[in-house]
Amino acid sequence: xxxxxxHAVIVDPTRAVLAGLxxxxxxxxxxxxxxxxxxxxxxxxxxxxxxxxxxxxxxxxGNIISDAVFFRSGTMTAEQIQQFLEQKxxxxxxxxxxxxDWYDTSRTTTGDAMCSPYSGGTRExxxxxxxxxxxxxxxxxxxxxxxxxxxQGLVTHVWPSDWRxxxxxxxxxxxxxxxxxxxxxFFNQVYGAAWQLKRYANPPGTSQYFTxxxxxxxxxxxxxxxxxxxxxxxxxxxxxxxxxxxxxxYQPNAAAxxxxxxxxxxxxxxxxxxxxxxFTDWFGSTTGGGNPFGNIELIQASPGQFRVAGWAADPDxxxxxxxxxxxxxxxxxxxxxxxxxDVGAAYPAVGSRHGFDAAVSATGAGDVAVCVYAMxxxxxxxxxxxxxxxxxxxxxxxxxxxEVSAADGRxxxxxxxxxxxxxxxxxxxxxxxxxxxxxxxxxxxxxxxxVYPAYGGAHGFSTSVPAAPGTHTVCIYGINxxxxxxxxxxxxxxxxxxxxxxxxxxxxxxxxxxISGSAATASGWxxxxxxxxxxxxxxxxxxxxxxHTADKTRDDVGxVYPAYGADHGFVEQLTxxxxxxxxxxxxINxxxxxxxxxxxKTADxxxxxxxxxxxxxxxxxxxxxxxxxxxxxxxxxxxSSASIAVHIYVDSVxxxxxxxxxxxxxxxVYPxxxxxxxxxxFVSMASGTHRVCAYGINTAAxxxxxxxxxxxxxx
Length: 715
Description:
Layout (H helix, E strand, L loop, with lengths): L15 H13 L38 H4 L7 H11 L14 E2 L19 E2 H12 L3 H12 L9 H5 L19 H14 L17 E6 L8 E6 L2 H9 L6 H5 L12 H13 L9 E10 L2 E9 L7 E7 L2 E7 L1 E2 L1 H6 L6 E9 L4 E9 L8 E10 L5 E10 L2 E9 L7 E7 L2 E7 L1 E2 L1 H6 L6 E9 L3 E9 L8 E10 L10 E10 L2 E9 L8 E6 L2 E6 L2 E2 L1 H6 L6 E9 L3 E9 L8 E10 L10 E10 L2 E9 L7 E7 L2 E7 L1 E2 L1 H6 L6 E9 L3 E9 L8 E10 L1
């Protein structure tokens, strides 16, 4: 096999490097004329079993064989392959072993990206090897048979030499060097060639090395190993055809095609021609019938539609054919009738009026598969040229409300809106409560154009509509023009100022209370709906209150209540007493109406000074175990929230532990101290009765606390 490190292109075995050896063997009468290659025609001019029915006017250099045929591994069973070989050579010449009777030792291989595992055998028939390799590597066994014939004439040869089996598929035999001995042997040749034919596609897990005949592009393919013979551009339609050119990088010229199985001129090559001849004569069409063919050159999303371009032709007619484009499940029929001289030059048998370039409607927002089919004329079937998944530029309108403000009996709004289905400006409906006004979002917005370049910038709106004094709900809708519905861009509540205080209660929120030691910061906002001026906020710590003014900038409040501005926040410093206290915030009405309780929050302050208080706690249990007992309970120092030490004495011998296990029940009773005050320690004891006592150890000033004693009898 030729791998990534060799980078050799595999071609037919009758190479320049073998010419001298072949000539010598011919002189000695040990080797017949070579099977196929760049510079020789058929191995035997008219080998037994060959019926020359292939129509070489149908040879398409860009579509020698379809992917569907090339990779169809289930075309023949091992038994059918054996019957085929026996049909081609009913009787082998005495003293020789023909392919129908050839056996070889195959080796077991592990699977990789190209082929699944192959289970080897010590004596396997050639037909079995061909079948098993085809299954392992996903290659049509008919492709292997045609290659064996065009490389060494092995399928029909009645007196083959062993050398033909040694390099049966031409694998590892480049034009510019001797054959690689690693690939000698029938099995190595068949498996190695199939592996290589799969490797050319750069399957996942391999490098992207083989790109110079990549399908979907036009490549210059030489006529002959002699560079002076030149080349011509070939549009490679599929991976299978690309594989054949990697394997044998020459196309037949006109002289080779006119010659059938015979010889053309000095610049003729025959490998891919003979492959086409043998395959077609033995197995039928290399493309599965007179199916249409073509290429998708562009699928591009634009507002409200997809542009689809390419070409398609049917070998059964020179007339333009239909192309069906599906966006999801919605189909549109177009005709491929645009003049394409390049197609005509590449495929003169079908003419040049086969291009298409059409716009088909999008069906809504989101990713969608766009598939293009070439519709068959005559024998054959329709062909999927390909599918691509794109994000549709379609769906309901999008946009934003940027300002809603009220003043002097009017409400002003501004923002932008566009419909993904069109680059044109769209209507926008502005509702103040239930009264609607239609406007067009046609104002210039270069910022929108930068984000949505396909739509331009004519999508801004700004207008002012009458509104009576008081509170109103303003809602703005983008009006849909294609698939999808209208879009609510949003709603805002505004107050249109009036001359009288309506006695409405203040609104606002007590957002937070941040505590650091005995200091706290209270924050929030408050508005009186009857005035745009800042109002007072009273903050109470317990029953002690103080007045403050909610006049600090709150941009978030200003965005929600644009008619009142942003200066309605409060951030105030408070001093808290030791222990638990409640902090409440009130928004104070500026006129008639009541004040508003914005909320209350609880604050816990732990003393920063040790007051010398002794620990508290409880010795709850002594649970016997093997060789001792588990002593459990809880303890804390009232002057600290930290976990404290507990000393456990067995008779007169003590040991220190830390009461740091979680006790949520203790935390509920002593919330300022947290829950990390439990202990549960296994204490080893000798057999007999012991006095076990537990002490809570003071962290600073003050004495320790005896939590309790218990008698424990260890068996």
